[in-house]
Design goal:
367 residues, Rossmann fold
């Protein structure tokens, strides 16, 4: 029996973040008899995907974090050389230069750099490092990917994007999985301790600087004064979770905020919400924005995000300089009948495109 092509996917971590969700969505919708993924990620990851990956036949390779530069390079070089990969696909923003350098040293012919986001100077040294490394991202890459136009232009430059050198691989989803579910709405509200008649603003994302959770608390402070039935549901985990909880206590909001943690049933949790908010400082094209719109939620997005995020009539972008505007927009938001997302974002066709891309690249190399 002919063996599938094995693609080395290098991620920072395997937790419950957006990049992991995108890669997993694609992996679930390719033919594993033709293409298989091997996952390389930081060895201290939470790794909730372990059992699912094992069942699907993925390769699992925990490695040192990229901050341990020498051991990280050694681990990747040895694995790439030993496994004889023809394609390595890196998902670490400008940090992708490090795994792609290891792939170049190991003689991997197809080396994909994938831009999932942009940057914001509010992250200080982290952002400075991104900008310092950005000129080198194309040095060891043979193929350029991005989740959307803004992420592609930021990483590779407008000239490169306009020449058609960047392949846009959308953060596609299984839209049926995120359809509104009234039964789940009632069940989950009861489970989380939210009154059935409450008005719930929701957010899904890791507790990191980029997601701007402090702004969500400010919105809730205003909303609570305007609506006695207002609640805030925060789904996710991350390094700033403790600080956000402390801020909620200080602002006397804790009794109206649910910190659900990371959940395996996020697709159902959207149905428990009445409006979705994403006031991020920066993003690429966040998969949660697609999921929320597929659920039929009215969605409010930061004006710092790409306009590509607006896919349904009930989605809007607002300035993150004005809390009152967000609070007013939220309390007037109403669920509408779900609109179909553009076919571009359907994972069935997108997964087939990626599978064919890998197969074609391998044939080009062999010929």
């Amino acid at each position: 029996m002919k063996q599938p092509i094995r693609i080395a996917h290098v991620l920072n971590r395997m937790d419950s973040g957006g990049i992991e969700a995108v890669v997993m969505n694609y992996y679930r919708h390719i033919d594993h008899d033709k293409v298989q993924f091997d996952f390389y990620f930081a060895e201290d990851s939470v790794f909730p995907q372990r059992e699912e990956l094992k069942k699907m036949g993925a390769g699992i390779y925990p490695i040192p974090a990229y901050t341990k530069v020498l051991s990280y390079q050694r681990a990747l070089y040895d694995a790439f050389k030993r496994n004889g990969y023809q394609i390595v696909h890196a998902h670490l923003s400008t940090m992708s230069v490090f795994p792609l350098f290891a792939a170049w040293r190991a003689g991997v012919p197809v080396r994909i750099c994938h831009s999932h986001s942009t940057a914001h100077w509010g992250e200080g040294k982290k952002t400075l490092l991104k900008y310092l490394l950005r000129p080198f991202t194309k040095l060891f890459a043979t193929d350029y990917f991005a989740c959307g136009e803004r992420a592609g232009r930021w990483m590779y430059g407008s000239r490169c994007f306009e020449r058609g050198c960047v392949h846009v691989m959308p953060n596609a989803i299984d839209t049926n999985k995120f359809a509104y579910d009234k039964t789940a709405r009632c069940r989950l509200r009861a489970e989380l301790g939210i009154p059935q008649e409450a008005f719930v603003a929701g957010h899904v994302g890791r507790f990191t600087y980029a997601k701007n959770h402090s702004f969500l608390l400010q919105i809730m402070e205003h909303l609570k004064m305007q609506r006695r039935d207002a609640w805030l549901l925060l789904v996710g985990e991350g390094e700033l979770e403790k600080a956000v909880k402390q801020q909620a206590d200080t602002m006397r909001l804790a009794d109206r905020i649910i910190f659900s943690g990371a959940r395996a049933d996020v697709n159902k949790l959207y149905s428990a919400m009445d409006v979705f908010c994403l006031p991020s400082f920066y993003e690429g094209l966040p998969v949660v924005a697609l999921e929320a719109q597929a659920n039929g939620l009215p969605c409010l997005f930061s004006d710092k995000m790409t306009k590509e995020v607006i896919l349904t009539p009930e989605a809007r972008q607002l300035s993150i300089e004005n809390v009152e505007v967000w609070a007013d927009a939220i309390q007037h938001a109403q669920r509408q009948k779900a609109c179909a997302l553009p076919e571009t974002y359907d994972i069935s066709s997108a997964g087939k495109w990626l599978q064919d891309y890998y197969i074609t690249k391998r044939k080009e190399f062999l010929s």
